Each structure stands twice: as C-alpha cells, then as structure tokens.
Fold this protein.
Amino acid sequence: MTARRHILAIAAVALLGRRVGAVTVEDSAAEQIRSVLPPELALVSLSVPGGDKAASADLAVVWHGAPRPGPTTVQLTAGSEKVWARVIFAEVGVVVVARRALAPKETIRPGDLARESRPIVGGRELTLDPAYLDGAQAARAITAGAPLTAGDLILPPPVPRGTEVRVVVLAGGARVTSRGTLERAAHVGERSIVRLDGIARIVEGELVDPSTIRISRGTR
C-alpha cells in the first residue's frame, strides 16, 4: 500500500468510525448531494469507502466543481478527516416506463406504458408517445416502473413505404407544412425519407407519428 493510500485508509476509518444512529455514510452523503442538484440532474451512483457504516454527525459533502453529467468525485469531511467519494450524475429526461410487470412476448395494451421524468443513463431510453407502442410485444421480462429501451420491445410492423404523410419543416421560428409519400418503411421515432408532392425532391426527417414526418433545420 502506498503512503497516499495508507493515509486515505486511515482517514476513512477515522471518518466513518464516529457512529450516530442508523444513518449510513452513503445515505447521508446521497441525501446531501441530491438536496443541491439542479432539477435537470440526478445522482445515479455513489461509491464511498465504508459507506455502509454509520455516519458521523458532522459529515459534510465538499464540492470541488459544479455537478455535470458523467462520473466525478466529491469530498466527504467530518471534522479534520477527509475521504473521497466517486459519484455519477445523469441528465433527467422524459422516458417511457412500464406501468405494470410484463412477461416475455406479452402484447402491449393501452395504458401499459407511460412517460415519466427519469435519469437518462444509457442514452437508448424510449422517449416517443407510448400510444404508438400499442401492439408491440415485450422482448424480455420487464418489471413495473422500469424505463424501456428499443431492445425491450418487439415493435409492431413499420409504417409502410408509399404511405401519404404530412411533412412539417421547422427552421428557427418558422414552420412550413407540405405533403409527401414515404419512400422507406419506418417505425415511429425512426428516420425515413419522403418524396414531396408536386416536385421531384426527396427529403429526410423523423417519423413522429404514423402520418407525420418532421424535418428540422439542416436536414437535407
């Protein structure tokens, strides 16, 4: 053990050795961290040496930088003793969650899914309107309250090629609508291409519902 690690180990023992009640170091630190986070951030992981021991009455979290998404460290102090804790923060977004437990191959019915604010941990969480997932099947067992990713569901058939759709173009504050024909089958939430009515031009955008393609500024 290096001298630095030895010093940190001694500090951790001293810090965690002062017991008051049943509140653990991890619980106390997590509560303090959550109390100061902005609403768009969530604490998803906290690791501290001896975190399951009882917390000292003067345990405090010391920040050495503003919280931001991703892994970082914070310092825990109790009197003159100090120890470092590793934390992971994630952005909060509106995602699709299961309102009840779902068995593999079970068909999604209206009301089975909902959207709630949750930490975006993997970046693959579903965010579209759950109404467009009715008829999908669970690809695996899903617990009630769990956020869903695309891999959790066997999606219903895509909107077929040749479907007439509304094309909504968003550019800054401007909004222009047109009509077109879907040139590539796609599920809601996926990107596809559409041929605009009346002109020989194909554009790409996101299928936001079974009859609407949205094109944001910069989309060709």
User: Anything to note?
Assistant: The CA atoms of residues 45 and 217 lie 37 Å apart. The chain is about 10% helix and 40% strand.
